[in-house]
Amino acid sequence: MRALTRRLMLSTTAAGVALAASPLRAQTTVPPDTEWPTYGGNLAYWRYQALDQINGANFNQLQVAWQFKTENLGSRPEFILQCTPLLIKGRLFATAGSRRDVICLDPASGEQLWMHRSPDEGLRATNAPRQLSGRGVGYWSDGEQERILYVTIGYQLVSLDAKTGIPDPNFGTGGIVDLKLNDDQELDLNTADIGLHSAPTIAKGVVIIGAAHTAGNTPRVKDNAKGYVRGFDVKTGKRLWIFHNIPMKGEFGYETWAKPGSAEAAGNAGDWAQIAADEDLGLAYLGIELPTGDQMGFYHPGNSLFSESIVAVDILTGKRKWHYQLIHHGLWDYDVCAAAILCDIPHNGKIVKALAQPTKQSFLYVLNRETGEPIWPIVERKVIPGDVPGEWYSKTQPIPTKPPAFDRQGVTTDDLIDFTPELRQKALAVAGHYKLGPLYTAPIMEKPEGPFGVINLPGYIGGINWPGGSYDPETHTVYTYSQTNPLNIGGIIPNPEHKMGQFDYVHANLPPQNGVKVGDLTVDGLPLIKPPYGRITATNLANGTQSWMVPHGETPDFIRNHPALKGVKIPRTGMIGKIAPLTTKSLVICGDPMTYTDETGRKGARLRAYDKTNGEEKGAVFLPAEQSGSPMTYMYKGKQYILLAIGGRGFTSEFIAFKLPGGEAPPPRRRQEL
Fold first, then answer.
1. How many CB atoms lie within 10 A of CB 67?
2. pTM of the shown model
C-alpha cells in the first residue's frame, strides 16, 4: 500500500510534497499539503486538490484577493496568458508577458518577489513559431538547491535559482542550454521553425523538452524542422538522450514510412503538449503530432510512426517501451494535444495502472500505462477516403468502444440549427455546398461548383485542446471541457508551379462561388451546428460511462441578441474556447472561455463551480475577462485561494486570485525573507 500511494503521487520528487492521496485511500485521507509543484498539479496531470474550504455553499461569496497585470513585462502587452503558476514553499512561480519573463509572487498578496528578464534573443525570438509568455515553468530541488526551469521564446532552456531568479552558472553556459544545438539535425539559430510554449517536465532529475512549430494548415516547406524530444540533466544541462519522433533508418518504426526517403524529408511530428510521467515506473508519456502537412500526407505514404501516437519512453534513457498510434496517417490535424492523465482504476476486480488520453477528436483513450494495451477494446473501423490524387488513405482508424466520445463527432443534417424554420432552411442550403460525413471523413478536392470541402466535427482545434482535463481520484472520474466547433478542412487544389510552397496540392482559398462565401460555416452570423457549443463532461473510468454533461458558459451575446431569434427561447448554449477545469474535494471549477453582457449591462465572464457528482452549478463569480490559462488552487496560511490567468479580446492579461471574505493578507515580505 505504501508503495502504491507513493507511485500515485507522481509529483516532482524534489518538491518535497505529496499532492494528492492514492485513489485507494482518497475516500479517507485528505492531503495535508497545499502546494502545486507542477504545471498539472502533479506529474500525473490530475489538476486536483482535495480542499473544501471553498465549497458549493460559499462559492458565491468569493472575492478578489489580488490581481497581477503582465502588460509591462515585454515591449507590448499580452492578451493570451496561458500559464498555470506553481506554488512551492510559499512562493508562486510563473512565466508572464510578451517577453516571457519569469516571476515569483507572494501567494497571499500577489506582490512580486523577484522577476527574471528573459534574454534578448533578437531575430530568433522575432521569427519564433511560439510567441508570448508560454504556459509555465518546471521546478526541481535536491533538498538544498532549488531550480526553476523554462524555455524561452527563441527555444533556449534556462535554469534559475528559485530563491533569487538568478541564472545557475553551473547549468549549460551561464544558465542557458541552446535547444537548437545538439538536436541531431541542422537548425538555423535565427530562422528554424521550432520552439516550445509548454512547461518543462522534470522527473528523476531529467528535464524533458518537446518541440512545437508554426501552427496549422499548409506550411510552405515539406522538410521542416523535426520535433525531437530530449532529456537533459537538471543540474548541468547535459543532453542525456534524444527520441526521434520520426525514426531514423534502422530504428523501430522507420519501415512505416512507405516511400523511400520520406522519413528523412518530413518535418514536424513534435510533442508540443505537456508531458506526463510516472517516476515509479520510470516512464514519460509523449504525445506526438502530425508530420509536416497536417491535412496532406501524400508525400509520406504509410502509417508514418510515431505521428499521432502516445509513446512511453524511459525517463533516464529515452528508449521506447511501447507506443499506441491513435490515428493512422492522419489528415485532420488531430495532434495529441494534451498531457495524458495517469491514474489507478478498478477494472475486472483489479487495480490497473491506467492512462487516459483526452484528444481533439473527443475520444478518451484509456490504456494500461505499463504496457500500452487498451483497457476496453479499441477496434479498427472503416473510414471514408478522399479523392486527392496521390494521397495515401488508411482504410481503417482505431475507435474506442468505451468510454463514449465526450463531444459530437461527424456531421449530418440532423446536427444543423433549427432555432426557427427559416434558419433551418438556410442551414441546409449552406451545408449543401459541402460534403458531410462521420468522423475521419477525408479531405477532398475543391471544385468551384462544389463541394467546397468537408465539414469536419470536431475541427482541428478540438474537441479539447492543449489545456486537457482534470481527474478526481475519489471517484475515478475525468472531467473535460470541450467545444463543438466545426471547420471546413477539405478544399484541396493543385499547386502546379509551387507558387504556394513545396507541396503539389494546397488548401484552397477560392473567392465567393455563386454568392456563397467559401469556408463560412454560419447562417446569418449564427453557428451552423446546434448547441451546446461548450460543455463539461464527467467520465467515470471505473466503468467507462459518462456520469453527466452540462453546457459551460452563457449564451454568447451574438446569439442571444440576434434579431432572427427575437422571442425565441434558447437554453444556455455554452461557449467555444480552449480551457480546462480544476477539481477539488466537492467541486469542478472552470472559467468562461468568452465574455458576455449580463442583465445589468456589465460585460465580463464568470468563474463557475459545479457539484462534481452531478454537474449542478453551485455558484459563479465575476471575471473581468475570459479564462485563458487553467486554474489551480492552494491553501496558504489558513486560506484557500483559486488562481487563474485571464485575458483576451482587448483585455490585457493578468493573474487573478480569489478567496473567501475574512482575514487580512500578511504584510509584504522583504527580499531577505525569501
1. 12
2. 0.93
